[in-house]
Amino acid sequence: MKNEGIEGTERFESPDKGRGLRAVRHFAVGELVFACPAYSFVLTVNERGAHCEHCFTRREDLFKCGKCKQAYYCNVDCQRGDWPMHKLECVAMCAYGENWCPSETVRLVARIIMKQRVTTERTPSERLLLLREFEAHLDKMDSEKEEMNQADLAALHHFYSRHISDLPNEQALTELFAQVNCNGFTIEDEELSHLGSAVFPDVALMNHSCSPNVIVTYKGTMAEVRAVKEINPGDEIFNSYIDLLYPTEDRKERLLDSYFFTCQCTECTTKSKDKAKMEIRKLSSPPKQEEIQSMVHYAKNVIEEFRRAKHYKNILFLELLEMCELSQEKMGGIFADTNVYMLHMMYQAMGVCLYMQDWDGAMSYGEKIVQPYSVHYPAYSLNVASMYLKLGRLYLGLEKKTQGVKALKKALAIMEVAHGKDHHYVAEVKREIEEQQ
């Protein structure tokens, strides 16, 4: 495939940011800027049986691979389409049985290696940026990241060396893992549940802003980039790399740690939303600055502690819920309910309630979260849409029809812009609303 570019856009050198993507025509809010098929992708293990391994379609009548009995497909066409990649894992899973446990990143890298071997020219995913042009930032990696990279490299050799002949040398693999960690994408559904991982080279060309003018959504294994602000000819096209709920310092820290740059976007220089995001509870005796700083420190620690606890094998969900409730009680002595650290733990508590099928508990948390989310996040945020969607579906399940339809309509208004009016997720939500009327 020749380098034909992407209509309406161009690759350019962005001041202080390196290469980037720029509009050469006007894009209206909700308009598709471009679509990009995945160069390589992998369905997460937890979604096997619920989604097709090849096209990521969610359906109940999937059939399983006759050999490994673990991969599921819509039909023979999907199975055949996936075989060049699945055969790697099929043989390995049969050989290792229950001991087969490479990380999602390792699985994705194995597929990229196989794809590169059979690809001799530019792919439809690389109209503006080649995968081999990805930044690796090896010189900026700390010892912890280097250790993680080495662990992934060892796992690749352990699980795949028998099934991929002549793996690239250590230096090439180290660089490839670093490139994927910096430029990979998480594919999510309409409720932001994790479906898998992929690389979309042309999407990775876009630089970051905490006030983005486009949003990335997924249609199966295709990434779609839509305008969420008016974009004029000459404007740089900005995506967001991170969750935008948090205050400026937290976002900068995350971007520096994961993507190795200091954000200088308008939102980071003006800090216009920080006061609302860090709202302090109105008390007769206002807390001192040191007390606030101490509580921020506690909040960051408890968020990290909870993140780790979720991965412990023997932890009970009631313990996780208790951790959420205790931290909210402590933080609530200083922080308002709309403070983003309070909202973070409420969101985690809602997730635990949903898992435990405590629908009333989940609804109660969702009601506290949704309005502050609408204030803290930019317009047409998927985080806000998914919260209205979860809440709407909870209301309908609890036979609160009027509230359910109202919440679903709010989700739909965002989704029609972010996902596009022809997306199957939009059709599903419309169908849910119509069934109630």
Topology:
Layout: E1 9-14, E2 18-23, E3 32-37, E4 40-43, E5 63-64, E6 72-73, H1 76-96, H2 104-118, H3 143-160, H4 170-183, E7 185-188, E8 194-199, H5 201-204, E9 207-208, E10 214-219, E11 222-227, E12 238-239, H6 248-259, H7 266-270, H8 274-277, H9 289-309, H10 317-331, H11 340-355, H12 359-376, H13 382-397, H14 401-418, H15 424-435
Parallel strand pairs: 9-12
Antiparallel strand pairs: 1-2, 3-11, 4-8, 5-6, 7-8, 10-11
Helix pairs in contact: 1-2, 2-3, 3-4, 9-10, 9-11, 10-11, 11-12, 12-13, 13-14, 14-15
Catalytic activity: L-lysyl(4)-[histone H3] + 3 S-adenosyl-L-methionine = N(6),N(6),N(6)-trimethyl-L-lysyl(4)-[histone H3] + 3 S-adenosyl-L-homocysteine + 3 H(+); L-lysyl-[protein] + S-adenosyl-L-methionine = N(6)-methyl-L-lysyl-[protein] + S-adenosyl-L-homocysteine + H(+)
Main location: cytoplasm
Subcellular location: Cytoplasm, Cytosol; Nucleus
Characteristic terms for this protein:
single chain, 437 residues, Annexin V, domain 1, Serine Threonine Protein Phosphatase 5, Tetratricopeptide repeat, three-stranded antiparallel sheet, 15 helices, 48% helix, globular, SET_dom, transcription, S-adenosyl-L-methionine, EC 2.1.1.354, SET_dom_sf
